[in-house]
Design brief:
Layout: H1 9-27, E1 32-33, H2 35-42, H3 46-54, E2 66-67, H4 68-78, E3 85-90, H5 94-103, E4 110-117, E5 126-127, E6 130-134, H6 138-145, E7 149-152, H7 159-168, E8 173-176, H8 182-185, E9 190-193, H9 196-215
Parallel strand pairs: 3-4, 3-7, 4-6, 7-8, 8-9
Antiparallel strand pairs: 1-2, 5-6
The structure holds 1,4-dihydronicotinamide adenine dinucleotide.
């Protein structure tokens, strides 16, 4: 098994996809699968899958393949899905509400403990049983409750001030939906940027290229 710090980020980024595929196999009652079959279903090669799993000690048995529920559980363990990283969300607008409602399910590895917004009209509203608090209380809340992760769903223009405060009160990682470059301003923190529009633009390029070809 490789030292955790030596495992490449591209291997780590493939783990959630393995986890999702294995969940679906498990839900369909599939108990055993070969690396070849798993590779075919996922559009990868069997050697890539073996290489990825070997980084964590390898989970298969020669000639048997992988036990789906066991592999699912092991990858879940590696991804720490049963831990509850204390998380806060800032910006309870359209996106913030959707994220709160859909992302923090059981086995997500995170626990949403606070939601903040600057719009007084929505402060006090409940989303998934959590009250929206005025952002003025953010600093004290963080001092009292020690959240580790922050989800940012506010306009980019307010992000500099907000992230400076969040880093100061101990936030270590960000799920960032804004265009503000947190990692540039705070090189020490962990940032996962999510840009749904990038996917749309990529899809647009590929769709138009395919349409152009079919017209040739
Ligand atoms: P929205 O206008 O519905 O919600 C924004 C919320 O943030 C509002 O409730 C507002 O009161 C609050 N807010 C503004 N400044 C604040 C501050 N300094 N502190 C606390 N709360 C504050 O906007 P929406 O659609 O939810 O988008 C939020 C952000 O997410 C925007 O930056 C938008 O560009 C981005 N976005 C990113 C996507 C992605 O895929 N990365 C997809 C959709 C939106």
């Amino acid at each position: 098994m490789q030292n955790k710090d030596d495992i490449s980020i591209s291997v780590i980024k493939r783990l959630p996809r393995y986890y999702r595929f294995l969940q679906s196999l498990k839900d369909n009652g599939i108990v055993r699968i070969s690396s070849k079959e798993l590779a075919a279903r996922m559009g990868l090669t069997a050697s890539q899958i073996r290489h990825d799993f070997n980084c964590f000690g390898g989970f298969g048995q020669q000639g048997y393949g992988y036990n789906v529920p066991e592999l699912h559980a092991k990858i879940g363990e590696i991804l720490c899905v049963d831990k509850e990283i204390k998380t806060i969300l800032i910006g309870a607008g359209n996106l913030g509400k959707a994220i709160t409602n859909k992302m923090f399910s059981k086995n997500s590895g995170f626990k949403l403990i606070g939601i903040f917004d600057k719009n007084e009209a929505i402060c006090g509203n409940m989303i998934k049983g959590i009250p929206v608090r005025n952002v003025n209380y953010l600093e004290n809340f963080c001092i009292d409750n020690s959240p580790v992760c922050a989800v940012t769903c506010i306009p980019s223009t307010d992000m500099e001030e907000l992230t400076d405060l969040l880093v100061k009160v101990g936030i270590k990682s960000f799920l960032n939906f804004t265009n503000y470059d947190i990692a540039m301003a705070h090189p020490g923190v962990i940032v996962e940027n999510v840009h749904l529009r990038d996917s749309l633009l990529t899809l647009g390029y590929l769709t138009n290229t395919s349409l152009d070809k079919s017209e040739e």
